[in-house]
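## Example record

The block below lists the input lines for one assembly entry, exactly as stored, with component labels intact.
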Amino acid sequence: MPLYIATVNVALRPSVLDPAGEATKSAALRLGIKGINKLRIGKAISIEIQATKEEEARSKLELLTDRLLSNPVIEDWNLQIEEI
Amino acid sequence: MTIGVVIFPGSNCDRDVKWATQGCLGIETKFIWHETNDLTGLDAVILPGGFSYGDYLRCGAIASFSPVLSSLKDFVDKGGKVLGICNGFQILTELGLLPGSLVRNHCLNFICKTVQLEVNSRRTNWLKDYESNENIYLPIAHGEGSFFCHNDTLKKLQDEDCIALRYIENPNGSIYDIAGITNKKGNVLGLMPHPERACDPQLGSIDGQKILNSLFN
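Predicted structure tokens for the full assembly:
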């Protein structure tokens, strides 16, 4: 059965304040790096999954992300998937 | 009258709750391991504070898939009372039994102190024994207790009189200073402050007693 590798990126929705991102942006300024307008912290989840075809893998991963990996009240996500 | 206190891996307020409900208030209380799905014989369930499953992924996210909570929605539908304290409140939002979500404190600090709260609604049994707009003092201890919801959800909470407790001085950036909310039916209460830590007179305050007493009223 084909093996797929996927990365799910989960980030706070733009309307939700990201205090960790704000604090990191302030530290970047103290480091002397200017010009950073926005810095938001999210998480990347790496997954290997077996499926008969890419559509099946995508469907399972979308369910997983919607139900467990992200909270739709506060987070957005995107999914990248490729066969290995 | 029997109360069940759920223990997840990482719960750390379960014994405090039992001391408050059984030791101070004399209500029979038993511990419920998270792997059971049998809630028969219980009149109320408390989800205690702590760090269930190490707060991995999001606070309360993994606990919301535990076997014991698969029975909780039925329990609530049948009118059973459920109280979620701190991490228990986070779990109730992840389960969808209460709206919104709890996110990182705006100040980024873990805050552990006693705060002043206003009883915002006496509509439900939980807070009916307090005076209207009464100010009470309860301890908080959380890093991710900032209540967040979208404007339409906030309006619904206001319209349905579901905002139970509000902070007098907002410690964590919660929307509308919200410290605790109920469901519309009124049998579910989630709050970030710890009423169980304000039940024993030796600890300096008994402001939390009326909330826990309402479990059997």
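Strands of chain A lie at 3-12, 42-50, 75-83. Chain A touches chain B at residues 12, 15-17, 19-20, 23, 68-69, 71, 73-74 (CB under 8 Å).
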